[in-house]
Queue: 2 jobs
Job 1
Amino acid sequence: MSESLNFHFTPVDEARPDEENVHAKASTDVTDVIKAIQEQFPGAVTEVVVYAGEHTVFIAGEVFLQVCTALKEELGFTYLVDLAGVDRFREDAPRYEVYYCFVNLKAGKRLRIKVRVEEDDAVLPSITGLFKAADWNERECFDMLGIRFEGHPDLRRMYMPEDFAYHPQRKEFPLLGIPGSLPLPPRTPEGELTMDPFAAAHSGSPAKSYEEPAEHDED
Amino acid sequence: MDSATGYLTTTVDSVVNWARSNSLMPMPMGLACCAIEMMAFGGPKYDVGRFGSEAMRFSPRQADLMIVAGWCSYKMAHAIRRVWDQMADPKWCIAMGACASSGGMHRCYGVVQGIDNFMPVDVYIPGCPPRPEAVIHALMDVQEKVRNEYSVAKDYASGPKKSTAEPISLGILTSDGRQTEVGA
C-alpha cells in the first residue's frame, strides 16, 4: 500500500491551506476578516487567540454592535450559530465573557468572537436587531449569568422561574442551590407550597388524596 | 362484622380488582431518556398489551397510573403535581429511573431530588435508564398492589372509617352517593 495514513483532523496551531486538508477547507482561517475589522474599526480587536487553526477574536464592548453590523452587512456573516456566556471567576480580569459564533455561508468561513464583560457593569448591547436567533440565547445568558442585553425586546428568564432571585451559573452560586429559593408543589391539592427541597426525608412522602386501603394479607 | 370482610364485598373486591389491575391505563410523563425506554415498554417487542396497559392515556382524566420517566425540574414539578391532582381516584404512580426516584446524577439546584418530595409514589424503578423489563416488573408490582386492595367496600372520598357503636351495614355506593343495602 503506497498511501500513508493521514489524520486530517489532528489539531495544529497554524491554519492549514486548502490543498493539505480536504476536510477542513480552512473554514476557520479568517485572517482577512480580522484585517478588515481592524482597518474599519481601529482598536476594536483587543486580542486574537489561535488554537488548533481556529481564530478567536476579542472585541471591545463599546464598538461591538457596530462590528456586528459590519460583519453581517459587509463581510457576509449572516448566520449566528451560537451565543453564550462564560464566568471566568478568578481567572481573567473582566469576570464574564460572551462568545458569538458566526458563519459566512457563501465563503464557507467560521468566526468566533468574544466580548469581555465587567462584573460591576454587566451590560452588553443586544444583537437581536441584527440576528433574530440571538433572542433566546441572550435570555439564557441573562438567566444563567445575569448579563443584561440592552435593547433586547423581551429580556425574561429563559429556564428558571420568573421570581427566582439568583443567577445559577455564576461560580459563587452553590451547586445544590439555595434552600427555600425554589418552591415545590403543595403536598395536598389545597395545601401550601413546600419550601423544603428534602421534604420526603424530613417529614415523609405525601399521602394519596384518598385513604389507601390496607392490604388483605401481608404474606 | 367489618363491612370490608364480608363474603359479598370481598368477592366483588376481587372481581373489581381483577378488572382494574388488568386494564391499568398509564399516563406517560416522559421527561428525559427514560421516556425512550417507556416507549419500548409500550411498543410491540416488549408489548405491555399482554398486561392490559397498552392504552397510554395522555389525558389525566382517563389515566389511573402515572409513570414519571426522567428527571423532574422544580418548574416541571408544579405541572406534574397538577396533572396528578387531575387524575381520578384511585390512582397509582411509578417513579421510573434513578432521577425520578432520587434525583440521580442530577444533584444540582434545578432538579427535584426525587419526585416523592411532592407526590406519593407506589413503585420505584432503579436504573439509568431501566430496561423495559424493569418497567414491566414495576407494572406487575402495581398490579399486585391493586389486587390486594379493597375497592368497593370502602368509601374513598370520606376518609378513614369512623368508629361508631352502631354496626355498619353491608353496602355498595351508588353513583349518586347513596348507600344501598345489600343482603343485610
Job 2
Amino acid sequence: MVVKVDSLQSSIYFSGLGSDELDSIRKYVFEKTAARGEIIIFEGEPAKAIYIVIAGVVKVFKTSADGKEQIIYLARPGDSLNDVPVFGGALGLASAEAMTPVVLYGMKKEDLEVRLQEHPKLGANIIKVLSQRVEQMLSLVEDLSFRRVTGRVAKILLENIEDTNGQRHRLTQQEMAAMAGTAREMIGRSLKLLEDEGKIRLERNRIVITDKEALKEIASVGK
Amino acid sequence: MARMPEIDRSKCNGCGLCVEVCSCKVLMLVGSMVEINEKVECRRCTRWCTMCEMVCPTGAIQCPFDVIIEE
C-alpha cells in the first residue's frame, strides 16, 4: 500500500503542509478499506484512530434506544471521522457506516499526538476541523429543537400540493432543505416522522398527504 | 417505465459517488459524466431511495416527488 501525498493534502488535516513534512507524516498513515454497508466505527468503542475518507461516502450516525437513526453528517473524500473522541480521549461518540465501497487513510491516536508536536501547522488545521465539527453540531441542535424543521416541512408540502388543473410542482428533498433552511438529512428524518405519525404516506415518486388538517396544525407549530 | 433520477450535466463533476451508492445500478459513468443506464429500471430499492441525490456533492442529481392529497 502506498499512501499518496496528494490524497493526504485533500484533507484539511494536512493542507498547507510542505512535501517534506507530508513525507515524514505518511509513514504513520495506514490504509483501510470497507465494503458497502460495513460498519467502520462502532459508537461506544474506544476511539483509537482518526480516519480521512479518500474514496467513497461514509455515513456518521447515532442510533437511539428504540432504533431510530440520526445522521450526524456524511463524510465524503477529504472529510475526517472519529476526530472528536480521539482528541477528547473518549469512547466513539457515533457509528460510521460505508455507504459505498470506501478507502480511508487512518492514523493511530498515539502517532497523531507525536506528529502534532512536530508540525505546528497540523495543530492549526485540526483546530479548524474541530471548529467545523462544533458548527455542524450546533446547526443540528438548532434543527432538532422544537420540531421546527418538521413544522416547516409540513408547510412546504401544503404549499406544493398538485393543484386542481393537475399542475405539478415536483419537489426534491434538496429543494425542501433549501426552503426550510436546513440540511437535507433533516428532511428525510422529518418526512419519516410525518409518515410514522400517519400524516403522510411516502410512495415511489410521491408524497401522499393523508391527513391535511393534522399537517396544517403541525405547520402552524413550525412558524 | 419507472421514473429515473434527473441529471444536470452542467453540475456533474464525474466523481462517481452516485454510481457507487446506487443499489439498482441504474447510474453509470461514461467518461467523466454520469448517465442513466436505460436497460435497468430504478426499482430494486422498493421506494425512490434518493441516495444518489443525497451523496452528490454538487447537486447534479435530483429525485423529485409529486405532492398529492389522498382521494
